[in-house]
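Predict the structure of Multicopper oxidase.
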Amino acid sequence: MHNPTFVVRRGERFALRMENTLKEPTIIHWHGVECDWRQAGHPRYEAGPGQTYNYDFPVTNRAATLWYHPHPHGVTGKQAHQGLVGFFIVRDAQEESFAERLGVRLGVSDLPVAIHDRRLDPSGQPIYAPTPEDFQMGWLGNAVFCNNERHARISVPAGYVRLRLLNACNARLLKLGVMAHDAPLPFTVIAADGGFLTAPVSAKAVFMAPGERTEILLDLRRFAPETAVSIVNLPFDPMHNEHEGHGAAGHDGHNGHDGQAGQKTSAAHSDHQQAIPHAADNRLNSSHPSPHAAHSEQENHGAHEGHREQEETAAHIQHGASAPPVSHGAHALPQDILPEGSPFVIATLQTTLPDTKPSQSPLSDVPPALPDSYSPSFKAAIALSEHPATKDEIPVQRFRLALSGSGHEAKWTINGLTFDMHATPIRVPARSAEIWELENEQRSMPHPMHLHGYFFQVLARVNSPQQVQELAQDAKGRVATDLGPKDTVLVWPGETVRILVDFSHPYPEEAQLFMFHCHNLEHEDAGMMLNVLVE
Ligand SMILES: [Cu+2]
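Done. Here is the predicted structure for Multicopper oxidase.
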């Protein structure tokens, strides 16, 4: 990254003076950091050109991969696209001892990996000029960056490798996979946005929406030096413009958990047709050679694993074969834009001889247990939500994600509302826990919903699309990344995600004004954001 990676220990004080040398207002949001709302980057505290803003707060988070990016109202997408993002890594004693037992070292075999796409002009300069349609769909790029590098190659010792993945794209969803020897390499998901999962989970793919972090562990202990291991985006349906009733079949598996939330209204929304045509009208079948194909130096070892789809995926990515048909939104994208859901290589890891013994444990050993990332109050709230006698006592708020208006005027809304700097439509009692039901309309787009200031637990996914159900890890429809503390959660078209928000964090000031918004930065800048008053 060009920007500093802050590595701080829990309990330390973090102080920083920001000088705004831009020609427009800005403010830094510490994404996932438990800092007071005046420190957290509320757009009310934007610093104008030439102004400064002083940050000074105690770091109370448990160990986690957090990050920072601008949060001025209306131009967050522009400034993030210019590259104003970086990591904020919190470490603590438990996590350091876990890393030591595993033999991973930050910067060597424990690597922050920020993934973002940008739109570049022929001279390589970033272009950011969203039209009203782009504010509805999101700004997709024609170039993929890993830690600000294209075609990134990273040397890693042939041992355990911990990757702290961040989707820093403005709008692009990723379906992360790992390939080695021309076949999918299963990995272990160990942490989500706010820290470690309750138990490690094996996976071959994870969806990551803008704003989300996922920590994965690769076991490369048996790998010979000079082996190439690729971090890839796997093909998927971006679901940009779903129509009523899409994918209704096969959703029964997750309908039983909450009949109320699972019932979908079938009200006609004819005004949406202009802005979001049906997917079927916008299929494209052109060939999209992988820009990274020429850089692949992997040999074909013939060691194919996994099912047919994954082998085909490997072929697409390795040999630059044509991408699967994908929908690309309400308007034709410039020819060279990477369609969302098309496969590409993000970065290639190259193994080297380990400089130290890879791990204290013999090869057959499972990694050590994960550190505990849940505070006592968070655990108590989860227990309350799971116990039949108390679960109905938890207050529920419902949030409906939908497009309002028509044509160029249409905006993504939360409960029909867009951002008003001074309105506080969401109110929560301090030191409480609430269940929030995030319901995305059927005819919609995926929306990664981010809450500032507090973490939440995903309780269940209802009416998930097939490609999400396929990755479910439990009977509640939850995927691997749902099984740890979260601050950003992806809600697919037609889906309802039930989360339990832990508002118990003891901020010194009783009243806290935070934000709840979509992390598709064009959606956010167009107003898909609301104030949350906790008092
Ligand atoms: Cu959105």
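Residues 412, 447, 518, 520, 523, 528 surround copper (II) ion (CB under 6 Å).
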